[in-house]
Amino acid sequence: MSKKKLNVGIIGYGFMGRTHSNAFRKVNNFFDLEYEPVLKAVCARDGAKAQAFADQWGYESVETDWKKLIARKDIDVVDIASPNNTHAQIAMAAAAAGKMILCEKPLAMNGPQAEEMVKAVEKAKIPNMVWYNYRRVPAVTLAKQLIDEGRLGRVFHYRAKFLQDWTISKDLPQGGAALWRLDVKVAGSGVTGDLLAHCIDTAMWLNGSIDKVTAMTETFIKERKHNLTGKVEKVGIDDASAFLARFSNGSLATFESTRYARGHKALYTFEINGEHASIFWDLHDLHRLQYFDHRDDGIVRGWRSLHITDSDHPYMKHWWVPGLQIGYEHTFIHQVADFIQGVQDGKPAGPTFRDGLATDHVTDAVLKSAKSGRWERVKQVRKK
Ligand SMILES: NC(=O)c1ccc[n+]([C@@H]2O[C@H](COP(=O)([O-])OP(=O)(O)OC[C@H]3O[C@@H](n4cnc5c(N)ncnc54)[C@H](O)[C@@H]3O)[C@@H](O)[C@H]2O)c1
């Protein structure tokens, strides 16, 4: 039977442009869905580069102005894979045009901007999702299942880290292609919105809302040449960010992120300690979940390294045979599959814009606390 078409217009052909395009192309090979994404158009400001991307990935057409993309009648889904300062304007226009929206993280430059985006998509009643893809690593999804089943019991501690080392050189410029993450006017913040946002989204999904935080941030290199102006300018982003948090369920947390941890490229880890059991996950070994259960017989009690490749593990029945693992790209494929399933069932899959807003409120409180030197309350988002 031929599938219903879901015409995708993607904005941005960079790192995320590639992961999303790959997911749209592969999802129907592995998931049985009524809809099929069609790569209708890619939009970026440089027409020749956008055309080269379209040719490589199979997009039917190219736009150089996202407003034109949104105005097209043949686009059903607008996928925002461009830098953070573009998300709000594009999403609000896409919502007004009645398009479904997939938006990269962080949802917005700050909480108040994200609130406007939530209002716009909810008023338009359109399916909306934020690409916090780590929720869909099968081992992380299994962690959620184990917690929801009560296997950990009461949770006492949550510990997350996201470490990189690519901005240590003082000669690295800020701004423009590839280096917009160092330009606060484009990124909104540094590692807090870029890396900790992932840790916070996973944490609140697994362990519930965060009530308050106390943080410290540092900008180690205070000035860098700006690629667009050619001048040496003040650096406005946080290079490192660490905070303590209290969850609403009474558990305590530590979060740390930096781009100055020599030797680490993308070390995202979390550990959760409960009354009965603990779990630990590491992005570098993403198909494994470490699990310790105190209720095991004492003489064989210890940390188990679960290989998350069996068909009864989340998502794995769609892939190869037990024992064979999958990786990073698959998290995006899972997210597209769940988005489409949500559209089919009329039950939106998370993280929705509302969930993305909750994370933006936490990062706002972190940045505020780093300035004030005090504990700051996190603005809460009502569940829908
Ligand atoms: N989910 C994740 O794990 C993850 C990982 C990396 C990046 N991101 C997020 O994805 C977004 C993009 O990041 P990236 O790493 O792909 O960046 P990138 O620099 O690799 O690509 C950005 C793309 O946006 C395009 N662009 C910029 N301004 C534009 C405009 N005004 N109109 C149209 N196109 C425009 C650029 O030409 C480029 O193609 C960011 O919000 C980032 O935070 C998420």
What does this structure look like?
The chain is of the alpha/beta class and about 375 residues long. The chain contains ten helices and 17 strands. The chain has helices spanning about 15-30, 45-55, 65-70, 85-95, 110-125, 140-150, 185, 190-205, 330-345, 355-370; strands at about 5-10, 35-45, 60-65, 75-80, 100-105, 130, 155-165, 210-220, 225, 230-235, 240-245, 250-260, 265-275, 275-280, 290-295, 305, 375. The strands form three sheets. A nine-stranded mixed β-sheet has the order 16-15-14-13-7-12-11-8-17. A six-stranded parallel β-sheet has the order 3-2-1-4-5-6, with helices on both faces. The protein has a two-stranded antiparallel sheet with strand order 9-10. α4 packs parallel to α5 and α6 packs across α8 (about 190-205). The protein is globular. About 50% of the residues are buried. Bound molecules: nicotinamide-adenine-dinucleotide (NAD). Nicotinamide-adenine-dinucleotide binds near residues 13, 16, 81, 105 and 178.
